[in-house]
């Protein structure tokens, strides 16, 4: 998955969240450095639909709201 870069000057990185139910995210599955705007999901199971969102966080640890949700069905 890819996303548009955050333009905040104090951007530290991104957090990727995944769920098998829309809107029900737990802990992030990945923390990505601020200069990267993509993530390859691994360990996905066939016959399952996954829902993903991304947040941006700054050097003080403040985290943005979730991005728009995207889904992917694995067949």
What descriptive keywords fit this protein?
75 residues, mainly beta, Immunoglobulin-like, 4-stranded antiparallel sheet
What do you see in this structure?
- It contains no helices and four strands.
- The chain has 75 residues and is mainly β.
- It has a single domain (11-73), classed as Immunoglobulins (Immunoglobulin-like, Sandwich).
- The model has no long low-confidence stretch (mean pLDDT 97).
Shape: elongated
User: What count of helical segments does DSSP give?
Assistant: 0
Low-confidence stretches: none
For CATH, the homologous superfamily is named as Immunoglobulins
Percentage of residues in strands: 35-45%
| Record field, number of beta strands | 4
Indicate the CATH architecture.
Answer: Sandwich
CATH topology: Immunoglobulin-like
CATH C-level category: Mainly Beta
Radius of gyration: 13 Å
The quaternary state of the protein chains shown equals single chain
| Share in helix | under 10%
How would a crystallographer describe the biggest sheet?
A: 4 strands, antiparallel
Query: Termini, distance in Å?
Result: 17 Å
**Integer average pLDDT:** 97
Give the topology string: H per helix, E per strand.
EEEE
- Overall tally of domains: 1
Q: What structural class should be given to the helix and strand makeup?
A: mainly beta
With strands numbered from the N-terminus, the spatial order across the biggest sheet is 2-1-3-4
In short:
With 75 residues, the protein is an all-beta fold. Helices cover 0% and strands 36% of the residues.
Give the helix/strand layout.
Blueprint: E1 11-19, E2 30-33, E3 49-58, E4 70-73
Antiparallel strand pairs: 1-2, 1-3, 3-4
